[in-house]
Backbone:
């Protein structure tokens, strides 16, 4: 066992880069080995499902539900700790600096970094190059799969095509903000099909160029899309008589309404904080004693708020009022409507007199009781009753129950049912066993079982 005598955090450093932020430099003193000087504790925005970084550092997640940010520890090059020792010591260091989330023991090897522009500069683009030759999904699929006939079909030599293919395959995995300067070289159809980091905001911004037929096969992106955009995707494809993805062609309602249709594809299991046991230290002994980090002035879990002021959870930069005014003015009506479904409350309030509030009420996922109450003159309760993505309390529903249309079932009310609310309002609302089962995932499990008994008796 390695006995830790003292951990000293000697520096805190913040920067504005989204890529990496060092928040501490730690010196570790042992009683039975030489000290480790300059272990870097850093935090970073998470862009992959992997439980480790491309350098092999283990990820310790902040937000266990979304895996949006992680902390990691980079040890000095001369550090001779084993893989398991690095993992355990990283856990100890991060716990000392504040609360952390889950951890992983996956064995990894560092991955080679891909330098987008350097790789681009190394490609000898012919003078007659046109990205339009590649903006056909069937062409890119054949090129990526190295189908021999594609080399005869395209008016370029094989050496160029192979180099271009390799660049496209790696480039399309990067955050789209890094790709905008290359869209005259990188097929946008292929970006829609293969880039796992596209946000709904990005798709709305580039809506006229988005290839919905290709996008419908991008499972990581589909899993994150709002009901609003999924409905737009399906109805637009059907209106243009395009072939729908076989995955959901027979389950359109489930695909549009479910937030977990593709969960089996991109499920990241991160247990609730209360379910995470303390790490059983096998390799280190550490009597924290007086050296325990108080954490009152600076918890690890608080750091992401700095970068969140500039970037959202998908790495898209947050815009100033002036920048958003310019963008909003350039939007067509379709873009404006889709934007209202995902717009943060600040923007809904700012453009409140220019927006379709029926669409906002039905689809926006950020609505709160306080916001709705302060914008009552704009609220369409008929539309709001269809929104099952927001959380409101029983008092709000009771207060405005008379404003909903009870000629038919109101999904918002059903998905928030409690036994008491049901018994109080059962003569006013429409609910039966089938509807209860339809929205059972939204209802508290114990409340659901109690309400179910009234229909089974």
Residues:
């Amino acid at each position: 066992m390695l006995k830790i005598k003292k951990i000293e955090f000697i520096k805190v450093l913040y920067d504005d880069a989204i890529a990496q932020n060092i928040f501490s430099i730690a010196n570790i003193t042992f009683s039975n080995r030489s000290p480790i000087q300059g272990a870097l504790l850093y935090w970073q925005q998470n862009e992959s499902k992997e439980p480790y970084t491309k350098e092999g550092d283990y990820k310790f997640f902040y937000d266990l539900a979304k895996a949006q940010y992680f902390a990691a520890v980079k040890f000095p090059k001369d550090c001779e700790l084993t893989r398991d020792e690095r993992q355990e010591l990283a856990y100890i260091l991060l716990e000392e600096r504040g609360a952390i989330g889950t951890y992983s023991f996956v064995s990894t090897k560092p991955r080679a970094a891909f330098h987008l522009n350097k790789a681009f500069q190394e490609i000898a683009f012919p003078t007659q190059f046109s990205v339009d030759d590649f903006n056909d999904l069937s062409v890119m699929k054949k090129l990526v799969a190295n189908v021999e006939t594609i080399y005869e079909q395209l008016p370029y030599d094989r050496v160029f095509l192979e180099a271009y293919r390799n660049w496209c395959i790696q480039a399309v995995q990067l955050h789209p903000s890094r790709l905008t300067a290359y869209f005259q070289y990188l097929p946008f159809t292929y970006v829609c099909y293969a880039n796992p980091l596209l946000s709904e905001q990005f798709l709305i911004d580039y809506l006229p160029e988005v290839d919905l037929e290709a996008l419908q096969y991008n499972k990581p992106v589909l899993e994150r899309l709002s009901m609003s955009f999924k409905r737009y995707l399906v109805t637009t494809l059907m209106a243009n008589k395009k072939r729908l993805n076989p995955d959901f062609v027979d389950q359109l309602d489930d695909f549009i309404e479910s937030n977990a249709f593709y969960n089996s594809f991109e499920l990241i299991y991160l247990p609730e904080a209360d379910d995470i046991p303390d790490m059983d230290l096998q390799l280190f002994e550490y009597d924290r004693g007086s050296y325990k980090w108080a954490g009152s002035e600076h918890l690890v879990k608080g750091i992401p708020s700095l970068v969140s002021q500039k970037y959202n959870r998908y790495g898209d930069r947050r815009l100033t009022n002036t920048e958003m005014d310019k963008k909003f003015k350039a939007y067509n009506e379709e873009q404006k409507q889709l934007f209202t479904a995902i717009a943060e409350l600040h923007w809904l309030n700012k453009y409140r007199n220019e927006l379709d509030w029926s669409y906002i009420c039905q689809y926006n996922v950020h609505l709160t009781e306080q916001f709705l109450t302060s914008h009552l003159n704009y609220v369409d309760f008929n539309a709001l009753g269809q929104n099952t993505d927001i959380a409101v309390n029983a008092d709000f529903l009771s207060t405005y129950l008379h404003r909903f249309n009870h000629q038919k079932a109101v999904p918002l009310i059903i998905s928030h049912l409690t036994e008491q609310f049901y018994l109080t309002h059962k003569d006013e609302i429409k609910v039966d066993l089938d509807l209860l089962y339809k929205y059972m995932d939204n209802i508290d499990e114990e409340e659901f079982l109690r309400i179910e008994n009234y229909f089974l008796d």
User: Anything to note?
Assistant: The chain has 24 helices and six strands.
